[in-house]
Write a structure and sequence with these properties.
ATP binding; AAA+_ATPase; ATP hydrolysis activity; four-stranded antiparallel β-sheet; 329 residues; six-stranded mixed β-sheet; Rossmann fold; lipid transporter activity; 12 helices; 39% helix; Alpha-Beta Plaits
């Protein structure tokens, strides 16, 4: 692929990127191309190599072997030019405790080459966008962990970089704040930015990422859209049944046994994964039964057995993730 094709088609290209720490192989031959308007998710357990990959993509860590191009520029040869094109939210907040949010945003804006007259309006715009405007004059050391993460994400956007790296941006945030941040990131993605995201939240990846990869022991184990990974690696469906609460004198275990016999008879190969009080969770491995027939079987069972409610659905991204990461050393 020529430099022209790389810069025209891809915002970020990794070719055989490898990192050794002495004799320890942290990242092993990663190949990846990410286009503008994409949010790419990098999933993996702690120690899988996600942050090391980020550090190589920003130039913080030297690449042992392989190449990285950002907007067609080689990060080894043109590091200063590349760093003008990227915004980076590190895993741990790199903030100065005794500065206020307003001062922090102004300093980073000036470093990124924003004209002094525009620094104030830019800082306030980002504060409104990420919902921390009311804390603008608080010192960093007075902020909660969630607000520090929001500020770190906002700093990554200063200077309007076309490529944004976010290393676990929502760690420590409450659910409402997470949603607010997701909305802001979805707007950025739709405006043509290329976002590279690491996260431990499967829900976050499903909400934001157009493609994702699961990383284990420094290798990509799978790569594709959420739905593609579910179709390829999630086996069958999950069935959750809630047993009716019945009178004390009725033996609940007998009722559960009757339901279990019914499921095993109607869905050959069904595995009872979890039993907690009145909730039963099954994995249905037989993909040949159509949805309409499954719902018909369960509706009949609901009439004859003590089933209060049930739900059936495709296996979650979390199950795909766990199936790969159990091999993490």
């Amino acid at each position: 692929m020529s430099r022209y094709e790389r810069s025209r088609n891809y915002a970020l290209v990794l070719q055989n990127v490898t990192k050794y720490y002495k004799n320890f192989l942290a990242v092993n031959g990663l190949c990846l191309g990410v286009k503008p308007y994409e949010c790419f998710g990098l999933l993996g357990m702690n120690g899988a190599g996600k942050t090391t990959t980020f550090k190589m993509m920003t130039g913080d860590e030297q690449i042992s072997y392989g190449k990285v191009w950002v907007n067609g520029l080689d990060i080894k040869r043109e590091q200063k030019k590349v760093q003008k094109l990227i915004g980076y939210c590190p895993q741990f907040d790199a903030l100065l405790d005794d500065l206020t949010i307003r001062e922090t945003l102004k300093i980073f804006a000036l470093i990124r080459g924003v004209p002094y007259k525009e620094c104030k309006s830019l800082g306030e715009h980002l504060a409104h966008e990420f919902d921390f405007f009311k804390h603008m004059d608080k010192k960093i050391k007075e902020l909660s962990g969630g607000n520090k993460r929001k500020l770190s994400t906002a700093i990554a956007l200063v200077g309007d970089p076309p490529i944004i790296y976010l290393d676990e941006p929502t760690t420590g945030m409450d659910p409402a704040t997470k949603r607010f941040l997701w909305t802001a990131l979805a707007k950025l993605r739709d405006s043509g930015k290329c976002i590279i995201l690491t996260s431990h939240s499967m829900e976050e990846c499903e909400a934001l990422c157009t493609r994702l990869a699961i990383m284990v022991n420094g290798n990509f184990q799978c790569l594709g859209s959420t739905q593609r990974l579910k179709n390829k690696f999630a086996t069958g469906y999950t069935l959750t049944i809630k047993v009716k609460k019945i009178a004390d004198h009725v033996n609940v275990d007998q009722e559960i046994k009757a339901i279990d016999n019914f499921i095993q008879r109607k869905f050959p190969g069904a595995q009872l994964k979890e039993k907690y009080q009145e909730l039963l969770s099954y994995q249905l491995t037989n993909n040949s039964i159509p949805w309409s027939k499954m719902f018909g079987i369960l509706e009949k069972g609901k009439k004859n057995l003590n089933i209060e409610d049930y739900s059936i659905g495709q296996c979650s991204l979390e199950q795909v993730f766990l199936s790969f990461t159990k091999h993490q050393q």
